[in-house]
Amino acid sequence: xxxxxxxxxxxxxxxxxxxxxxxxxxxxxxxxxxxxxxxxxxxxxxxxxxxxxxxxxxxxxxxxxxxxxxxxxxxxxxxxxxxxxxxxxxxxxxxxxxxxxxxxxxxxxxxxxxxxxxxxxxxxxxxxxxxxxxxxxxxxxxxxxxxxxxxxxxxxxxxxxxxxxxxxxxxxxxxxxxxxxxxxxxxxxxxxxxxxxxxxxxxxxxxxxxxxxxxxxxxxxxxxxxxxxxxxxxxxxxxxxxxxxxxxxxxxxxxxxxxxxxxxxxxxxxxxxxxxxxxxxxxxxxxxxxxxxxxxxxxxxxxxxxxxxxxxxxxxxxxxxxxxxxxxxxxxxxxxxxxxxxxxxxxxxxxxxxxxxxxxxxxxxxxxxxxxxxxxxxxxxxxxxxxxxxxxxxxxxxxxxxxxxxxxxxxxxxxxxxx
Length: 419
Ligand code: AMP
Ligand code: MG
Prior knowledge:
With 419 residues, the protein is α/β, with parallel strands linked by helices. It has four domains: 171 residues, 3-Layer(aba) Sandwich (Molybdenum Cofactor Biosythetic Enzyme, Chain A); 59 residues, Molybdopterin biosynthesis moea protein, domain 2 (Alpha-Beta Complex), CATH 3.90.105.10; 94 residues, Molybdopterin biosynthesis moeA protein, domain 3 (Beta Complex); 78 residues, CATH 2.40.340.10. 18% of the residues lie in helices and 30% in strands. A hairpin with a 7-residue loop joins strand 19 and strand 20. Helix 1 crosses helix 7 and helix 4 packs parallel to helix 7. The chain is elongated. Bound molecules: adenosine monophosphate and magnesium ion (MG). Magnesium ion (MG) binds next to loops. The site of adenosine monophosphate (AMP) has 19 residues, from helix 4.
């Protein structure tokens, strides 16, 4: 049995970024760039109006001071409409947000500044504008003010969330080069297990870990490959493991503790998966197994044997599989773990002798302070107690924490705001 910190170190040492691939931008959300994105154009590519209003010459306003400026409208420019015609002294162009500033104009006065009912003045009519706080250049996004042609708009290591996909599109990237999406095979073992669609007979248990792990994988931008349920028979487990070893990661649930039918470690080794560790000093999740299958220069598979008890499986996923998937995706280790914070307990919480306990809690921010309310939870088989848990308290071994004590917590979802 090893310490948690050592186990995390061993996982991190094996979880290297997957090979980079050229991907369609439209399919690349969630990926991490292995090459930067550069722009092929200035953005904006021309001076652009940021307001609906009138494109004007600054000199007309600077000369007027606080007074109303009357200008003859000579153009009407919707977004997408351009002109070679110049705005001359004493004239203005009606202009909409997103349209190119016409030659001669160097500022935009918003339509709200038009007075005496002249806001809708069309070509040939006069608009009266009152803009005492006029600034030359106002309400114009200058050419290349966001970025210039050739600029690196996204560096290596950027994760493509919606904003990054948008800026890549703005820069003209139809494809990006990013670490491949991890394919994660999920195999649940146990002769007692039945599909969630079935009503379990006496002695049977619904397979909750299969759907849970598939969801956890998908939520981390990896691709779950469900392999179904294997009964606790060596041939059944071996066949399914061999199938799973084609993936980048194989997650097994069950069969890694000390029972007579806990066959998984033995069969994994027989299938060429080398154990890195088995058993970690932690609760729940002590029986967790980790290993790797190498094939010369070929792709390797990381293998996690998660305990069958559902809460243990999920805690081990959060602690070990989550950072591994992040690092395979190309993120630095520091960005891959659940964030840690300190929180004040709203009720007492007992630890366990000899092992730190990860205990589900609800987090709330009250008057600037993070508070953790331990949830009703009966232990490693109690998944319901984890549903709705925004955090996992880390109770040190043997500790009996009291209300008001400060404890470390892993943050799963942002805390509620309480008053
Ligand atoms: P094991 O780790 O195989 O010894 O299983 C420990 C406990 O977790 C047993 O009560 C199993 O029935 C239960 N269990 C194992 N796999 C699953 C699963 N996929 N879904 C729900 N419970 C499970
Ligand atoms: Mg079992």
